[in-house]
């Protein structure tokens, strides 16, 4: 069709010819007369909510159910024992799944966007001292909100005050000192991690400076009788801290700071803080224990039996108060910094309130299901597994298998738990996809997951062997981390970042209470002074396996390049 020129005045006249003015009151009357929207039917709600819920529910289902079935199946098939209080355990596991689903969704849509915005705005609007102070407070608040911290405190009743007096003190009368030491260590780690992000420090250099100090302090504590039993707890604390609250929030702030300081083009800008957050709590707990023991036996407090009475200590009020105590301080810190320090309003307030409500509800359900589900299941496994190689503690029945075969089955069971829990870990799957993209497919997601899972499985088996044979945990840690440091020296910075951070994402809110309960149950049965150390070995295992895999990939890549040049 040929173009035709038209004066603008003629065009306006043609457009306005069919217009008429109406009053606002007439518009309101017309709106009132419109038919009401039909109510949502059940099928409509199903179509809206099912795709949203099913993806999030299936993630937690894959992380919890296979592990629980493995525990139940091993006891039923290999140990010929049935699950006690099956209904209660099943309901507890369901509460854990739903609680984790709500909690992770709440953190993702309520806390992480706010944390990333705060991290982006603070470097430009405040001085570095304020940013470091905020990082310290964020690390402390995030530690209090970690679901797995409660699993450490729940282990107090199984520790003998006669065999491990100061360990029992740290988990009992001085438990608040323990939690504050862990929180302070994480806060210091986040502050140093922010400095690393701002100035571009290499993680490899920091590890080679900090880890020898940590190992040296551990070896010194091992020579002190009153401190030797605390080493396993201190190193397990490093694994407990890097959970579903600390990791995403700290990384979100780190991403914001990296974007603000112009380092967001570095694909490794988010790595490193998780590693630091798993090392500094070890130093903090050991230092706290050294201070307390230096005060002498007179500093020991009487161990009080659990207090009775009080509506606030009964279910579900205790879980509600615990959930609010964990989430509210963290939310208040972020909101105050956003509104008062940065002078910005909370955007999309309804979504923010919805996310915080989901996080609180998820923490409540998780706390309710933790004791009845995961901890009970792990304790039953810890009590039953030794029957494979020793007499049944309750009935006096002879061992089910010869000693060597029974020990082999027990170690295989520990490996399977570590491997299976790691493969199902959602955070590791997300990291695997990121690494595959950053390395252009050289380090594939499946290869990373299997390398980390194998390392965790071997670590879990070594941790269980340590309890069964009463091996000193400090020697295993010294040997394992010496290998890890030697591999770190000869590895590239990218692989070092990946390997040391992968150890942090493997110990989530599902594996921590299970492995803790399993270790404590085994320790009680075989007469060990304490059952800590499995989580510590689960952390060093994947560092070695991923560094070894990275070196193998580099060798293959260099060999391929040499062959292509010759051709």
Automatic annotation (TrEMBL):
Top-rank lineage group of the source organism: Bacteria
Transmembrane helix in keyword set: yes
Residues annotated as transmembrane: 63-83, 89-107, 128-154, 174-195, 207-225, 231-259, 271-292, 320-339, 351-370, 400-424, 447-467, 473-491, 498-520, 532-553
Family matches, as InterPro entries: UmpAB
The entry's keywords: Membrane, Transmembrane, Transmembrane helix
Keyword match Transmembrane helix: yes
Name of this chain's protein: DUF1538 domain-containing protein
Native species: Candidatus Accumulibacter phosphatis
Taxonomic lineage from the root: Bacteria, Pseudomonadati, Pseudomonadota, Betaproteobacteria, Candidatus Accumulibacter
């Amino acid at each position: 069709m040929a173009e035709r020129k038209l004066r603008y005045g003629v065009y306006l006249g043609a457009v306005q010819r069919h217009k008429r003015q109406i009053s606002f009151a007439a518009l309101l009357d017309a709106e009132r007369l419109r038919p009401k929207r039909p109510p949502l039917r059940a099928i409509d709600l199903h179509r809206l909510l099912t795709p949203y819920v099913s993806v999030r529910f299936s993630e937690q289902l894959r992380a919890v159910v296979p592990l629980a079935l493995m525990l139940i199946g091993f006891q039923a098939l290999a140990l010929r024992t049935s699950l006690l209080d099956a209904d209660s355990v099943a309901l507890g596991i369901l509460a854990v799944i739903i609680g984790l689903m709500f909690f992770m969704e709440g953190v993702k849509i309520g806390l992480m966007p706010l944390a990333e915005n705060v991290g982006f705005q603070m470097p430009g609007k405040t001085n570095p001292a304020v940013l470091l102070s905020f990082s310290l407070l964020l690390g402390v608040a995030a530690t209090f909100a970690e679901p797995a911290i409660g699993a450490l405190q729940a282990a107090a009743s199984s520790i003998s005050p006669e065999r491990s007096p100061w360990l029992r003190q740290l988990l009992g009368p001085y438990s608040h000192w323990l939690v504050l030491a862990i929180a302070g260590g994480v806060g210091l780690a986040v502050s140093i991690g922010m400095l690393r992000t701002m100035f571009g420090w290499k993680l490899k250099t920091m590890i080679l400076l900090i880890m020898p100090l940590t190992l040296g302090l551990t070896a010194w504590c091992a020579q002190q009788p009153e401190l030797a039993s605390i080493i396993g707890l201190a190193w397990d604390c490093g694994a407990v801290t890097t959970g579903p609250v600390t990791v995403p929030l700290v990384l979100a702030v780190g991403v914001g700071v990296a974007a603000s300081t112009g380092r967001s083009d570095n694909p490794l800008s988010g790595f490193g803080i998780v590693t630091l957050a798993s090392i500094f709590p070890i130093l903090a707990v050991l230092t706290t224990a050294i201070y307390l023991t230096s005060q002498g036996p007179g500093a020991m407090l009487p161990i009080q039996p659990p207090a009775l009475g009080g509506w606030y200590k009964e279910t579900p009020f205790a879980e509600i108060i615990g959930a609010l105590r964990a989430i509210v301080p963290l939310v208040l810190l972020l909101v105050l910094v956003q509104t008062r320090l940065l002078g910005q309003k909370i955007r999309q307030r309804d979504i923010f309130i919805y996310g915080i409500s989901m996080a609180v509800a998820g923490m409540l359900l998780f706390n309710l299901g933790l004791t009845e589900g995961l901890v009970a299941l792990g304790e039953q496994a810890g009590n039953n597994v030794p029957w494979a190689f020793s007499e049944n503690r309750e009935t006096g029945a002879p061992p089910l298998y010869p000693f060597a075969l029974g020990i082999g089955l027990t170690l295989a069971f520990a490996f399977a738990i570590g491997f299976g829990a790691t493969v199902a870990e959602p955070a590791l799957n997300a990291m695997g996809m990121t690494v595959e993209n950053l390395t252009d497919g050289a380090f594939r997601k499946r290869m990373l997951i299997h390398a980390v899972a194998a390392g965790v499985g071997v670590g879990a088996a070594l941790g269980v062997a340590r309890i069964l044979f009463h091996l000193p945990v400090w020697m295993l840690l010294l040997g394992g981390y010496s290998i890890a440091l030697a591999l770190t020296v000869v590895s590239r910075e990218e692989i070092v970042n990946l390997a040391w951070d992968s150890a942090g994402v493997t110990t989530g809110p599902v594996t921590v209470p299970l492995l803790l309960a399993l270790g404590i149950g085994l320790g009680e049965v075989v007469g060990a002074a304490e059952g800590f150390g499995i989580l510590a070995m689960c952390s060093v295992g994947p560092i070695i396996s991923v560094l070894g895999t990275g070196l193998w990939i580099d060798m293959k890549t260099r060999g391929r390049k040499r062959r292509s040049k010759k051709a």
